Amino acid sequence: MHLRPAAVSIALALAALSLSAQTLPPDIEAAFVRTRLPRDAVSLLVVDADGKSPPRLVHRPGQPMNPASVAKLLTTYAGLDLLGPAFTWSTPVFIDGTVRDGTLQGNLYIKGQGDPKLVVENLWLLLRRVQGLGIRTINGDIVLDHTAFEVPPQDPGAFDGEPLRPYNASPDALLINFKSVMMTFTPRDGQVSVHVEPPLSGVQVPTSVPLGKGDCGDWRAGLRADFSDASRVRFAGIYPATCGERMWPVAAADPAGYAARAVAGMWQQLGGSFTGRVRDGRVPAALAPAFEVTSPALSELVRDVNKYSNNVMAQQMFLTLSLKRRGTGSFAGSREIVRQWWRERIGGEPPSMDNGSGLSREERITAQQLALLLQSAWASPVMPELMSSLPVSGVDGTMRRARGKAVGVAHLKTGSLRDVTAVAGYVHAVSGRRYVLVAIANHPQAASLRPMIETLIEWTAADQ
Q1: Predicted pLDDT at 22
Q2: Burial (0-12, 13-18, 19+ Cβ within 10 Å), 191
Q3: Most buried by CB count within 10 Å: which residue of 99, 315, 324, 381?
Q4: What is the spatial distance between Cα 410 and Cα 403, in angstroms, rounded to a whole number?
Q5: Total Cβ atoms within 10 A of residue 317
Q6: DSSP string spanning 297-332?
């Protein structure tokens, strides 16, 4: 099988080494010992970004590992390469009927086409544009078309038993505000006001909660929130005054009905009304869109995916690959497209993919494959967009808490699940050279790898 130049260089370099038992540099060995992790639970690799020199550090680089959110590197690089940095998503809106005296005699259709960031502000703009057509009342239904993606129903609590965590939101062709609400708690006049965005039709949320004393601490637990009834949120606790203003993002208790509730709630908040209902359906085949709402460019959205490890946005991007190539977005279709892309762009056997986000127990990739991916990206036209999307050590995103000499010298994607800790990306050395660094632990105490990762970044940056 034909290998690309980066693949050839690293493959030959690794073949020249004994991959089973490499002697680690003293600083790295000491840090490894402190982790108390078994040797066979960790993979490490440090190699030139341009792939022209033998690896500087090697430990079990060929072992398939669960990468957690480091898998987003594959999704975002493939997305940038296949779709292009300037790619945008459109959400067309259709009017089926006539408009007279502020009333649409017919249905309004909104067709989702995978936009990863159709958030509250953009939904507001979309509905304002509807009103800009002279529509205040809809004498019919608002129909939401989700058919661009074929995604089986998912239980948001199936992965880790946390259905109300926004990171567990499932993808959707018409994904509105990540299927989540943002509750803002603001102390004022002896009590705490509660503001919710977006407004959800048919969902009651208290407008205030009692103000209490004491440390802020675990203020969310202190509220004693009850989300068991999808149509009504209850708070049985208090909110400490010492917290000041805080925000709490919560996934919808009824994810399947979220889009309908959000559209209805926002339309009503804007002063609109309708005589029918908000429901799911298909846009009639012969209907032309009245207008389209366009997302920011892919080059902007990959920053959200990688800097903040947004799972559902990564899955939206992944599904879009097959949507654009095959007319319908599906996980199986996108996996096949990325496998083919890997063989053509990088060479060799592709990693085992699942949903493109790393929120999976099934995905597997080796440190060597990640290094090949990053070397290929380094030599590609989309390198600036991909690299700038990665968290900067000690500065922003999921790497903002890094300390010591590692601050500001690395762009690294992080990954964290139960039993998984991982990083992969680029380190800028004092010599001016750029290195690819990969570190993965799969073990019940995988989190103990984190101090070693900081040592590894410092060692790499120092050209030791």
Answers
A1: 67
A2: middle
A3: 315
A4: 12
A5: 29
A6: PHHHHHHHHHHTT-HHHHHHHHHHHHHHHHSSB-HH
Paired sense of beta strands 142-145 and 180-188, if any = unpaired
pLDDT at 2: 39
Distances (CA, A) of 125 to 230, 292, 298: 27, 11, 20
Token pair in block for residue 5: 């130049």
Token pair for 186: 């603001």
The DSSP letter of residue 234 is E
Span between the terminal Cα atoms of the chain, in Å: 35
Antiparallel, parallel or unpaired: β 191-197 and 208-212: antiparallel
For the full predicted model, state whether its pTM sits above 0.90.
yes
pLDDT tens digits for range 356-398: 999 999 999 999 999 999 999 999 999 999 999 999 999 998 9
Kindly tell me the burial class for residue 247, based on how many C-beta atoms sit within 10 Å of its own C-beta (0-12, 13-18, 19 or more): exposed
Residues in the chain, how many?
464
3-state secondary structure at position 383: helix
Q: Is 123 exposed, middle or buried (0-12, 13-18, 19+ CB in 10 A)?
A: buried
Strand partners, 234: 226
What's at 181, amino acid-wise? V
Axis crossing angle, helix 72-83 with helix 367-378, rounded to the nearest 10: 30
CA distance 174 to 112: 4
Q: Which parts of the chain have pLDDT scores under 50?
A: 1-3, 5-8, 12-13, 15-21
Tokens at 459, concatenated: 């060692």
pLDDT for the residue 190: 83
